[in-house]
Amino acid sequence: MSTATTGTSTKRRNGAGPSAATAPEPGRHNRKTASALAALGVPRSHHPWHGLFTLVPIVASVVLAFFRWDIISAPSFVGFDNFAEVVQDPTVRVSFLNTILFVVVAVALQLGLALALAIMVQEKLPAWLRVFFRSAFFFPLILSAASVSIFMRYLFNEQFGVVNWLLSFVGIPPSRG
Q1: What's the domain count of the chain?
Q2: What gap in Å lies between CA 88 and CA 133, rounded to an integer?
Q3: Residue 16 placed within a domain
Q4: Residue 38's pLDDT band (cuts 50, 70, 90)
Q5: Does residue 149 lie within any of the structural domains?
Q6: Which residues contact 31 (CB under 8 A, 6 or more apart)?
Q7: What are the Cα distances from residue 73, in Å, to 63, 70, 172?
Q8: How much of the chain is helix, strand and coil, in % rounded to 5?
Q9: Is the Cα torsion angle 36, 39, 41, 43 positive or negative in sign?
Q10: CA torsion 51→53→55→61, rounded to 10°?
């Protein structure tokens, strides 16, 4: 049978073109569109609260930066005067330079120390000491999970837990577990 009689395309039969399995559902974005929207700062549709509590304050801050406002009286438009005042302030310059210096020194020291410790633990120590240091580096991760689990055990305790005590006021019996 030819394509004229069946109405199917040879492209489709040969595997070219989009298939039904790979085509995005109507109303859904494909990965390329989603990454383009993310690059523009557009929140995904399932994060409207994130957009509300992130974009609205940022836009409000940018708009208010062009006004002089003391909260009591109405804001008055001053344009770039606020920015000029900040740039000319010597305290801001010193603070900016201190921040840059702190970041450069802190990053260099932390990176150097971390690299030296990693190399030392990997190669230059006896096996028993390597195991000790690897355990010591991993211990804070385990400790935080353990402390959270102990804390939650006290919160949900059947006899004196705060959560079960609060739930008893609305008639929910204590959890057993």
Answers
A1: 2
A2: 50
A3: no
A4: confident
A5: yes
A6: none
A7: 17, 6, 51
A8: 65, 0, 35
A9: positive
A10: 180
The per-residue pLDDT for range 121-135, each reduced to its tens digit, is 787 778 888 888 888
Count other Cβ atoms within 10 Å, centred on residue 84: 11
Q: How far apart are CA 62 and CA 70, in angstroms?
A: 16
| Residue at 49 is within a domain | yes
pLDDT tens readout for residues 75-104: 999 999 999 999 999 999 999 999 999 999
Regarding whether 81 and 34 lie in a shared domain, the answer is yes
Residues 6+ apart with CB under 8 A from 167: 173, 174
Per-residue model confidence (pLDDT) at position 5 = 53
Non-local CB neighbours of 77 within 8 Å, separated by 6+ positions = 66, 67
Domain coverage including residue 62: 29-88
**Residue 38 counted as domain residue:** yes
What Rg, from alpha-carbon coordinates, does the chain have? 30
Strand, coil or helix: 177: coil
What pairing do the DSSP bridges indicate for beta strands 67-68 and 76-77? antiparallel
164 within 8 A of 174, measured Cβ to Cβ: yes
Residues written for the chain:
177
